[in-house]
Amino acid sequence: MLTLTDTARAMVRSFGEYVENAALRVAISGGSPFAPRYELAIVEETDRAEGDVVFDADGLTIIVDGASAPRLDGATIDYVEGPTGAGFEVRNPNVPKLDEIQPTGPLAERVRRVIDERINPAVAAHGGEIRLVDVRDDVAYITMSGGCQGCAMSKITLRQGVERMIREAVPEIQGVEDVTDHLSGTNPYYQRA
Question: What is the mean pLDDT of the chain?
């Protein structure tokens, strides 16, 4: 299923001191296929739902949400400390790496054409670039780089510019999701202090 590093297990145990028969509950609670949001909570061992996967990790009970279990198979949970703070980190081999995906098919090609011919010339004036990551069902997933990565206006650019232009030109697309890590990169517009 999934594993915890020794550091993560120690932190969970320290947080669980205040909960009788503490267990770690893990679930994927949204996000995108490329940037899922993980939910970790200290709960009582009896706080289980039908379909949950429950197992022992060196004396610590782990409860994995049943719907999330296949997407968490093989994942590792660690507790990391860095210059911006500390917290749990999930390394999940089931999440595709953005630079390894090559969207194909007529729908993806139509979206890519809108991005290349209409959107990128407009955002290039600010040093930005938009890249199509994938098209799944009726959603186009994009990344922003250069001047768009980390820009405070990136959400407005996405909703009022990128999404509007793509949906007008390709009506089959019902949504556009930005899967950019806006806090890191080689040249983000806004850099952390």
Answer: 87
